[in-house]
Amino acid sequence: MSGSTSVFNQPKPVVKLDQGLLDGITAGIQPYPIPEGRKYGYGTAGGDMLEQSWEGYATVLANAPNEEMAKAYENLVNETLVDEIRQLQDRPANIVFGRDTRASGPSLIKALKAALDAAGAKYHDYGYLTTPQLHYMVRCVNTQNTPYAFGEATEEGYYRKMANAFKTIMYGRKINGPVTVDCANGVGGPKLQELIKYLPTSAEGGIDIKVVNDDVLKPEALNFDCGADYVKTKQKAPPTVKAGPNERCCSLDGDADRVVYYFNDSNGGFRLLDGDRIATLGAVFLAEMAEKAGLSDKLKIGLVQTAYANGASTEYVEKVLKLPVVVTATGVKHLHHAAARFDIGVYFEANGHGTILFSDNATKTIRETQPKNPGQKHALDSLSASIDLINQTVGDAISDMLFAEVVLAHKAWTPENWLNTYIDLPNRLVRVEVHDRAIFKTEDAERKLVSPKGAQEEITRLVSNYTKGRSFARASGTEDAVRVYAEAYSKHEAEALAKHVADVVKKFGAAPDPRG
């Protein structure tokens, strides 16, 4: 049970019976209400995001006090879910689970096993896993012996599948220099070390990976002065990352489902390559390979973003790459489902959480098309291997890192070349405390306020005063606060716009005057 991705304070017998009769469960100790954007630590039979209808059921059970949990469970089974359960009553529940390196793991596993034993469920304990590895296992088990078999449901199967795909895409290409990977002192450290054993070195036509911050023996070291969040929020490399100018570095988060890249330029300046950059890098490569494979007219490729994506990235994808962009509400579950509507759907949040989805039609088309020349064959092979290299079940930092590396090798790009594909618009994110966040309601993928009345009109008027201005206000999911995002042509303008919009939020979010 990978500790950072759960709706559970403590394991409770929440078992979803689904197509393949197997679910992955992860558990942790997150507070409630559940933070927005937090993904549930279990999913569908495909190993991806839980269907939205089931989120409500899980939330009811997760928030029920212990003494009321049995009653809440009984109500769901006998009232809300009675028809669905009747259809599945003859199928045994089959559960897989794993855990990260936190000290709470053994007690959580013990409680979970007790619950599953009481429910009479079949289960398999995979031991230490990254969250993405657990999602991978779920899909593998549920698709075995089908035309859609995802792979071998073992750690070795995970490593071999990824390494073989990496070798295929890397054929005839060279990676320039090593990449330093900060593993946030989380479970991704030992798992990356294991994967390296399956990868060819640079001298063998592969990659050299320098692993740092992989100490899993000290619980207090997890995410301390390291990891993707540290890099993203502090806008600097972890102190333990020692890299020269233009040397590639990336940081995973604690359970290895997010990754961000960065480097120091020739002047020593820190340069971040976040999830938006990883998304556009993937889109560039896949669009080029589709064109060389002669499949541009047969495959619809699109990119999914949230309102927080930098406007320059959106413009680059739409105007330079000529690919459609869909904007969804914040949260991986929204991006994942929107990406599934494309033949090849690319999605990443700015924090580095994301993946690429290939539809059944895309997989069939790529793998059944017969090449007419060597160039087309290489493109088809690269697309086919990308299907295997990318963990389509959920964001996977290790998988995403390897994919970024092969794309950079194909393009012969340095980090600076990657950075210069477009120039981010200066932006600012401001937190504003309000009396009641519930009055701030949005539409248009959270980009416009519909309540309080009159607030959006004021924001729209302010935005019109700034070159390339864009701003929106969105209520926090966990506290009485509203987050204001603003971007504009210059840093000064972005900061000024953010301040003015924050003032609007403060005005409309102030406590009512008790005197009437």
UniProtKB/TrEMBL annotation:
Residues 67-142 form the Alpha-D-phosphohexomutase alpha/beta/alpha domain. Pathway: Nucleotide-sugar biosynthesis; UDP-N-acetyl-alpha-D-glucosamine biosynthesis; N-acetyl-alpha-D-glucosamine 1-phosphate from alpha-D-glucosamine 6-phosphate (route I): step 2/2. Its EC number is 5.4.2.3. Residues 153-260, 274-413 form the Phosphoacetylglucosamine mutase AMG1 domain. Catalyzes the conversion of GlcNAc-6-P into GlcNAc-1-P during the synthesis of uridine diphosphate/UDP-GlcNAc, which is a biosynthetic precursor of chitin and also supplies the amino sugars for N-linked oligosaccharides of glycoproteins. Its cofactor is Mg(2+). The gene is PCM1. It is an enzyme of class 5 (isomerase). It catalyses: N-acetyl-alpha-D-glucosamine 1-phosphate = N-acetyl-D-glucosamine 6-phosphate. Binds 1 Mg(2+) ion per subunit. Residues 429-503 form the Alpha-D-phosphohexomutase C-terminal domain. Belongs to the phosphohexose mutase family. InterPro entries: A-D-PHexomutase_a/b/a-I (IPR005844), A-D-PHexomutase_a/b/a-I/II/III (IPR016055), A-D-PHexomutase_C (IPR005843), A-D-PHexomutase_C_sf (IPR036900), AMG1_II (IPR049023), AMG1_III (IPR049022), PAGM (IPR016657). GO terms for molecular function: phosphoacetylglucosamine mutase activity. PANTHER family: PHOSPHOACETYLGLUCOSAMINE MUTASE (PTHR45955). Keywords: Isomerase, Magnesium, Metal-binding, Phosphoprotein. This is Phosphoacetylglucosamine mutase.
